Amino acid sequence: MFDESQTVERCVDALRAAAEHAAACPADGANEPVLVVAVVNAAASAPASALASNRRTLAHLQSRGGGTTHSIAPHVTLSEDGALSILTVNSSTDGRFIPPNQGVGAARKLGADIALAHFHRGRLRCPQVLSTDADARIPPGLLSAMVGASDDCAACTWPWTHRAGSLSVEEHDALMAYELHLRVYTAGLETAQSPWAFHTIGSALSFDLNAYVAARGFPKRAGGEDFYLLRKLALLGVVRRMSGPPIEIVGRFSARVPFGTGPALRRMLNSREPRSWDHAVFELIAAANRRLHEGSVADDPVAAMAAAMADTGLAELDVLVQAIEESGLSGPLRAARKSSAGATHRRNHALKSFDAFRTMRLARRLESMILPAVPLDRALAPYEFDAPAGRTYAERAAAMSEREQRRPEIPRALADLHGHTADGDNRPRKEETN
Q1: Buried b (16+ CB within 10 A) or exposed e, 229-242
Q2: Stretch 57-61: mean pLDDT, rounded?
Q3: What pLDDT digit, counting tens, does each position of 277-318 carry?
Q4: Does the pLDDT value for residue 399 go beyond 70?
Q5: Of 81, 169, 377, 411, which has the fewest beta carbons less than 10 angstroms from its beta carbon?
């Protein structure tokens, strides 16, 4: 929680309603108090207004117990609030500040690690953890659904949408344009048969603590920590895309993270026309995926992938080779080719090399080199089947979300690779650790 004193009360009220709903359900572990680990955090360089907001957040969380708040460690309190046990961590004061280059990733890791410690000490029976934020409002049935979905997956991504909050009409339109941009990327990956076609929203994901340990937890990053954690979890088990009422995320301006909603909202407001991905980017990624799934051995796997992409007629061979090289794919593909292991192992190694990070890198290289972003209406056209004209961005985003939920399971490619993890596959990369 950072500078979220205006939204924290509604967030915790929603968590309490969801905990009460879960307590009424018969699912194993769902009828026990829900532990909320609230990490109120900031860097020492945070604005005075944000630090003051954090102090208000701390005061609110510590008052939820109605006199039953206890100090259990320096800067850590525990409050009992109905079906909630709220463990509040003050990482927004001298000696406790979050390092500026670790930001939200360090805060999420601290909270999840505390939950992990409670689980291993037998204080929690359910190994499922929901990652969310104080500007998010979860629906009443989410916690009970999370427990019920926990048996066979490493992580779940939950439906989400943005709420206007205190934004103006113009700002809300820009926010929904950004939401549509995110949905276009996921929809595009789905048409490309990519196993990475799921959202990576830090306030709308849950995970199994055993898988979390194997993935080495959230990376300590100022942004993108949700993306990198899910990349690793998807190589350990199934990531399930859930259905149901969405988590509502309040739109707001924030300069804390180097990318994400706040910076994107500013870009959308400053642009004359919202833009998003050209669908041709995903046609090229689809061709690359097909080439990897063929599993045939090539003397130069980069040239073979580029040739398969060039067969679409969308780009020249030399440009595609350059895009593959600059995406970071070339080294792992060639390493897989040289492996002395059997053909199945080489194919699996190559498929896993084309992970979420390198898929996004390749998409961005294709965008910057040959297929620049197009007007949002054009970007949406391949995914809005027989949609009526004149709908608002919010209506179009809701329709895309509904279609996503009708196809809850991700493609099986990653699940087929489980148990074939190459050595070191889940070690943190340089870009993950800062």
Answers
A1: bbbbbbbbbbbbbb
A2: 92
A3: 999 999 999 999 988 887 665 678 889 899 999 999 999 999
A4: yes
A5: 169
Burial 59-94 (b: 16+ CB within 10 A, else e): ebbbebbeeebeeeeeebbbbbbebbbbbbbbbbee
Q: What is the pLDDT of residues 139-188, one digit of tens each?
A: 999 998 888 775 678 999 999 999 887 778 888 888 899 999 999 999 99
Give which of 152, 153, 104, 113 is closest to 132, Cα–Cα. 104
**What confidence score (pLDDT) does residue 132 get?**
93
Q: Sketch the domain layout of the chain as residue ranges.
A: 8-276, 279-408
pTM comes to 0.88
What number does CATH give the domain 8-276? 3.90.550
Closest CA to 142 of 154, 127, 158: 158
- Residue 226 in contact with residue 356, Cβ under 8 Å? no
> Which token pair is 200?
């990576």
Q: How confident is the model at residue 423 (pLDDT cuts 50, 70, 90)?
A: very low
The token pair at 305 is: 């992938």
Hey, how many other C-beta atoms are within 10 angstroms of the C-beta on 326?
A: 15
Q: What are the backbone angles phi and psi of residue 5, rounded to the nearest 5°?
A: -65, -25
Token pair listed for 105:
């990733």
Tokens representing 116?
């992990």
